[in-house]
Amino acid sequence: MNPREYLSDDGQAVLLLCSSLALPHRAAETDSSPLKLSEWNQLERKIRESSLKHPAALHGRSAEELAKALALPGGEAERIGRLLEFAGELSVELQNHFERGLWAVTRVDEHYPSHLRGRLKHQAPTVLFGAGNIRLLQRAGVAVVGSRDIDEAGAAFARDTGAKAVAAKLPVVSGGARGTDRIAMQAALEAGGIAFGALADSLERTARQADVREFVSDGKLVLLTPYSPDAGFSVGAAMGRNKLIYGLAEFAVVVSSDYQTGGTWAGAVEALKAGWCPVLARDGDGVPRGNKELLKLGATALPSSELPEISNLGEWVRQHAPAKTVESELFDFGMRDKPR
């Protein structure tokens, strides 16, 4: 694997500015902390409107030059300059990661998932780290989400949904967590399909697991995360990666949700409000209250009794839950001007 196949010059500049990959220990807690998504969105606009035009053009410029060209306060320009000074360290870290089968890509790069960029727009993660065939991420999938603790009826529904996605030639997208996520992803893989795991836990540790490594090597599984590859699990990370799951999906199926609590509920409500993709919720006897309340908020019912009879899940969704039109918003360097 060659970092240059994934990261353009602009992408490497964005990676320096928006990730802690190249920073020394504890530097991220100082004035050299990486830019947050909202900060990058503002800087991206300033760069585009300036004479610099592209992130790579920031290299080699003094804080004074950056402040003048981008109309930035002196402190912000100094911070950007400090982050860009770690280019040598970034090259070493990237080579180490790519040699271990991990990749990095940014929102300005060609291999960044186009469906994710189009769905989430300015909320799309600036940087993604992953393992597996990145080109597979150009395909929108079926998001299957639900509780970690799930009863047998929910588990059976998750398995059936995973298998139905494969029959419809769609990847399964989930979070890789115990319970619903793993059940649906495993069902897809066992049926010969493809799964995308959007992680809220350590990418490095997950990718080293023997069974996971085999699926990744066989081109059946892609792991990705918007967080540092060695970052451990946190509730905030689990909440934050929800939009990644929905952004990679053509539609989403909620197998089991608590009411007004937990990541499944929060992610589904956010997706419904934002109109990222059609959201379906398992319906029928014994489903959790959260499922019923999601239906009241606009989710489409997917009856447990009907799922086994659906021959093409994708076609069924297109007939019963048409997607909302999402207006395009062009904001990424290089993507606007590439020939199509």
Describe the structure.
With 340 residues, the protein is α/β, with parallel strands linked by helices. The protein has two domains: 3-102, no CATH class; 131-320, Rossmann fold. Helix content is 42%, strand content 13%. It is built from 15 helices and nine strands. It has helices at residues 9-18, 37-49, 63-70, 74-84, 87-99, 114-120, 152-167, 180-190, 203-208, 210-217, 235-240, 242-247, 262-274, 289-296, 313-320, and strands at residues 102-106, 127-131, 141-146, 172-174, 195-198, 221-225, 249-256, 279-283, 300-303. Strands 1-2-6-5-4-3-7-8-9 form a nine-stranded mixed β-sheet, with helices on both faces. Helix 7 packs parallel to helix 8 (180-190). The two termini are 26 Å apart. Mean pLDDT is 91; it is low at 325-340.
Low-pLDDT residue intervals, each spanning 5 or more residues: 325-340
CATH class of the largest domain: Alpha Beta
Backbone shape:
elongated
Order of helices and strands: HHHHHEHEEHEHEHHEHHEHEHEH
- How many domains is the backbone divided into? 2
* Helical percentage: 40-55%
